[in-house]
Specification:
Layout: H1 8-15, E1 20-22, E2 25-27, E3 34-38, E4 45-50, H2 54-71, H3 76-92, H4 94-105, H5 109-130, E5 138-139, E6 151-159, E7 162-166, H6 172-185, E8 189-193, H7 200-211, E9 219-221, H8 226-234, E10 240-244, H9 247-261, E11 264-268, E12 273-277, H10 283-295, E13 305-311, H11 315-327, H12 347-363, E14 366-369, E15 384-387, E16 404-410, H13 413-421, E17 425-426, E18 428-432, H14 436-442, E19 450-453, E20 468-469, E21 472-473, H15 480-485, E22 486-494
Parallel strand pairs: 7-8, 7-10, 8-9, 10-11, 12-13, 12-18, 13-16, 15-16, 18-19
Antiparallel strand pairs: 1-2, 3-4, 5-6, 6-22, 11-21, 14-15, 17-20
Helix pairs in contact: 3-5, 3-7, 4-5, 4-7, 5-6, 8-9, 10-11
The protein binds nicotinamide-adenine-dinucleotide (NAD).
């Protein structure tokens, strides 16, 4: 097979002069600095985007304040209607957005279609449904009455204001949709800064949002490097940051937010997610589970499994069967529908993985399969299986965010629990067993924001998602996100 043909609309979009999206239209940056966007499959430059300046930040925040004034006063049903129309437009432009996403990120075209566009539309509709269901409470105070007066109280959930959304490169389209959907359904306006590696789909989605009826200023998009996110957080006109990215950047973002003006911050960060197989799981099922947990989208998923614990008695046949399966994957262009394993998302990430492989070798970890990067212009990295020497091996402790599964055997359940929880992170974990009674007893003992049993990585908009420990603060999805995008106002009345 060969690459699918690019749509004329994709070619036309790539050929454009890319600007910023401010107050309902594409405008040029007030500066002249640009950043190239490269296709990780072949290293070719796809486009240049603006590296926004402080003046651009000021302009976008002024627009967002105006957008907030009108959008927050619109009826919840009207807000929902706009978001439902945007979901329809995402689906109508499914192939165009999926192709742009694959070009900028190297994601397999099937994953771009199914997750970045179809799942994003599904999430957007879920959030749109909340617009009309956000409520406060009525409370009867117990204050003493001295002269027959009485009291009543109620709470209001009010939109927090202008939100800054900061997005990573791994699911550039879907995570941007989560952020704009959370903000817009609660009546906030939002300025989003996509990753400098993957900004293209969001620029297109902003245009679709206007087509869906979103008023000017409710959604602005500023492209550029990290300094743009920092300037937005520290701007006096912004009220909250919703950040998704790495732990070190997340800590810097949290500090900047607190230091600026107690800007509210939700931080969805990375981790080092544990995957545990109890001895009753058949080898072929365990291999399926490892591929699902560790190798989907080349492991570039925040919730992906990275530390794999297998009972000592099952380790050797499992590693052999896994290596065999990984060796059969068809590696190639992500625009070829038959490809099963594409490149990682960018050159710095490929280089980071090469350094981690070198560290693993230097520390005496055993590379069972893979462990090399490609030497061509594309960002290819072999799917890799590593057997750690001890709990201290770097590959068991540092997030790789790549197609790398690191294994350690265990001897009994107490040791397994200790190993799973011995991490400063706690985004996700999974437990694999046929004995659901045993799983139910272990679930409360495992430290993770999301724990899957006999599955891994799959997210649903109705199920809250977020990290404990150093994996973040706050939750997305479910109704939990409402707390983070609104302020609670208490009203007391004497009568
Ligand atoms: P990153 O932290 O390098 O960058 C994320 C975003 O922050 C980018 O847009 C970047 O330009 C911006 N940024 C950089 N410095 C900044 C600063 N000082 N102030 C404000 N913004 C700044 O992350 P990445 O490499 O793009 O993405 C991979 C990471 O994201 C992984 O660690 C992964 O685990 C994490 N992630 C977490 C989740 C989650 O939901 N928990 C989801 C996806 C990815």
């Amino acid at each position: 097979m060969s690459d699918i043909a690019l749509l004329p609309s994709v070619r036309a979009f790539l050929a454009r002069e890319h600007g910023l999206f401010i107050h309902g239209q594409t405008v040029p940056s007030q500066g002249s600095a640009t950043i190239p966007v490269r296709n990780p499959a072949d290293g070719q430059t796809l486009a240049h985007i603006a590296d926004a300046t402080q003046a651009d930040v000021d302009q976008a925040v002024t627009s967002a304040r105006q957008g907030f004034a009108s959008w927050s006063r619109s009826s919840p049903a009207a807000r929902a209607a706009v978001l439902f129309r945007l979901a329809d437009l995402l689906e109508a432009h499914r192939e165009e957005l999926a192709q742009l996403e694959t070009l900028q990120s190297g994601k397999l075209i099937g994953i771009s279609r199914a997750f970045e566009v179809e799942q994003a539309a599904h999430f957007l509709r879920y959030y749109a449904g909340w617009a009309t269901k956000i409520t406060g409470q009525t409370i009867t105070p117990s204050l003493p009455s001295f002269a027959g007066e009485r009291y009543s109280a109620y709470t209001l959930r009010e939109p927090i204001g202008v939100v800054v959304g900061i997005v990573p490169w791994n699911f550039a389209t879907m995570i941007a949709i989560w952020k704009l959907a959370s903000a817009l359904t609660t009546g906030c306006s939002i300025v989003i800064k996509p990753s400098e590696f993957t900004p293209l789909t969001l620029l297109r989605i902003a245009e679709l949002a206007s087509e869906a009826g979103l008023p000017a200023g409710a959604l602005n998009v500023l492209t550029g490097a990290g300094h743009v996110g920092k300037a937005l957080i520290e701007h006096p006109g912004t009220d909250k940051v919703s950040f998704t990215g790495s732990v070190p950047t997340g800590i810097a973002v949290g500090q900047a937010a607190m230091g600026a003006k107690l800007t509210r911050a939700t931080l969805e960060l990375g981790g080092k997610n544990a995957v545990a197989f109890l001895p009753d799981v058949a080898t072929d099922k365990a291999v399926d589970g490892i591929i699902e947990a560790g190798f989907l989208h080349s492991g570039q998923i925040c919730a992906a499994g990275e530390r794999f614990y297998v009972h000592r008695s099952r380790l050797d046949p499992l590693l052999e069967a896994l290596s065999q399966r990984l060796g059969q994957l068809k590696v190639g262009s992500p625009l070829d529908e038959t490809t099963q394993f594409g490149p990682v998302a960018n050159k710095p990430h490929q280089q980071k993985l090469a350094e981690l492989f070198a560290t693993a070798r230097a520390e005496g970890s055993q590379i069972i399969h893979g462990g090399r990067i490609g030497d061509g212009p594309g960002c290819f990295v072999e799917p890799t299986v590593i057997l750690a020497k001890s709990v201290n091996d770097t590959l068991l402790n540092q997030e790789t965010f790549g197609p790398v599964a690191t294994f350690l055997p265990y001897d009994d359940e107490d040791q397994l629990l200790h190993l799973m929880n011995a991490s400063p992170y706690g985004l996700s974990a999974s437990l694999w067993t046929n004995d659901l009674g045993k799983a139910m007893r272990l679930i409360p003992e495992i430290q993770a924001g999301t724990l899957w049993v006999n599955m891994h990585t799959l997210l649903d908009p109705a199920v809250p998602f977020g990290g404990i420990k150093a994996s973040g603060i706050g939750r997305e999805f479910g109704s939990a996100f409402i707390d983070d995008f609104t302020e609670l106002k208490s009203v007391m009345i004497r009568y």
